[in-house]
Amino acid sequence: MTRLWNDPADFADEMIDGFVAANARSVRRVTGGVVRATQSPAGQVAVVIGGGSGHYPAFGGLVGPGLAHGAAMGNLFASPSTQQVFAVAKAADNGGGVFFSYGNYAGDVLNFDAAQERLRAEGVACETVTVTDDIFSASPAEKQKRRGIAGDLTVFRTAAAAAEAGYDLAGVTAVAAKANARTRSIGVAFTGCTLPGADHALFSVPEGRMAVGLGIHGEPGVDETDIPTADGLAELLVSRLLDERPEGAGTRVVPILNGLGSLKYEEMFVVYRRIAQLLETAGLEIVDPHVGEYCTSFDMAGTSLTLFWLDEELERLWDTPVDTPAYRRGSVAPQQRSEASDAVADVVEIVPGDDASRASAITVAAALEVLVRTIDDNVDELGRLDSIAGDGDHGIGMQRGAHAALAAATAAVAAGAGAGTTLERAADAWSDRAGGTSGALWGVILTSLAAKLGDAGSPSPLDVAAGVAAGASGVMDYGKAEVGDKTMVDALVPFSSALSSAVDAGASLTDAWRTAAARATTAAAATADLLPRMGRARTHGHHSVGIPDPGAHSLALIVTAIGETLAASKEN
Predict the structure, then answer these.
(1) What residue numbers bound the domain in which 526 lies?
(2) Same domain flag for 242 and 159
(3) What sections of 182-328 are H helices per DSSP?
(4) Residues 55, 69, 200, 217: which is the catalytic one?
(5) How many domains does the chain have?
(6) Where are the alpha helices (DSSP H) in 292-418?
(7) Do residues 309 and 375 share a domain?
(8) What residues contact 568, with CB distance under 8 A and at least 6 apart?
(9) pLDDT digits (tens, 9 = 90+) for 177-198
(10) Could you confirm whether 55 is annotated as catalytic?
(11) Residues 306-352: tens digit of each pLDDT
């Protein structure tokens, strides 16, 4: 378990500050993460990687000459926000375009894609290759749905080497896609991991048993078996990976035996001894074997094996020297330090709303206060629900986002903002601070509602219902989930539909809201019977049967609490 922290909510920020202080030779702090502390050639493609914190040396530890130009670093096990990714990419850009790569997880895809679109709108060329190396997370027929684990090192290093060699953005993208197609991984765990401040692991494995096919965010394994001998484990890992030898692969292969956080190196060496024997017996030539920690899962006791199948181009790029805080290969020539500083975006001045809208803005802030209290009261339960088939961070992510939204709304009200601007500021703060899937989606909901509220006059019940409907539509467009996928959408769509119907029938906002909240609560509870078809829980769907979706449940809790507050206010 983790033992040292101050406030768990501040852990990721304080960790990044300490990491930068300890590695100022290699990295410098920018909004959203880190970039190289050294200069890169003008016109060179910038390789930007990233993901949630808790996986060191991924992702900040892999920034430096020969590897990434920047890393967007999210909260623990939560993807970086769109704002974080955008800021890191802007700081890393050398004028040759930005290449993104990260593990194939729903929150990362949402936020990196959104940042990519913002950059393209500003004229910055961008491309992406998501890492999909985990063979246990989807069938060969659905390889595009697989998640990324320790195989991200092969894709990151290949892409960065291509950039160093002068490849253009299209060339970097093509060779990274080839590296991903030639990378296969499988992982096992003997214990789960424990987030700072938590009193139990995100999942447990019975004594003497081993989880097979685990994720790197504390997700439970897909299968379970007795703990084998070291040789038995090597045979399991190698046989499964050789069964998925990539089409056209030759005989030269890089094996990467990765520790997930608390497995001893000595144990891994015993396992690797047999791995090497098995690969050689299979007629393979081992190139540059790796045994160590490359992508961890906090304090998880476990390991993963990655096989990277080389061709002439990939092997040439793989030999590129690298010098980062956590990963070094070969000899990198002395680098000139960068004199750049993190450019802080100008704060947009608030244009005051009219009297009626400012009064509505106070109501918006009051609703956010209720929302914050609701999340604070239920944060542990939301985390527990999320840990059953996911990564257990839904409660703390919602808490971070909600508190940031309230702080931003309070400041906006004090500056005389109308209701629309107040909620818009809250939405931006929520998505930025929370990160992850829920942060992005709540940002969409609040932004859509803000656009309908505006900064002039008092919004009508029809305006509110239209804003909620726009939010529901935006969430489905953005996250690609539909009713029945076991996500927030399963509660949001019924809530929006019931709210619009009641308002259209002439009900007051209070009565319509409470009717819709009851509908959302029923719909959220019904998600217990569903198998998840989206997000991290998709791989472990059988674990979540009988348990409601945490995103749907938290939305139902929030709209119910706001409805009760509206009713109490009406009575007074």
Answers:
(1) 355-571
(2) yes
(3) 230-242, 265-281, 312-318
(4) 217
(5) 2
(6) 312-318, 355-389, 394-414
(7) no
(8) none
(9) 999 999 999 999 998 888 887 7
(10) no
(11) 999 999 999 999 999 999 999 999 999 888 888 776 655 556 788 89
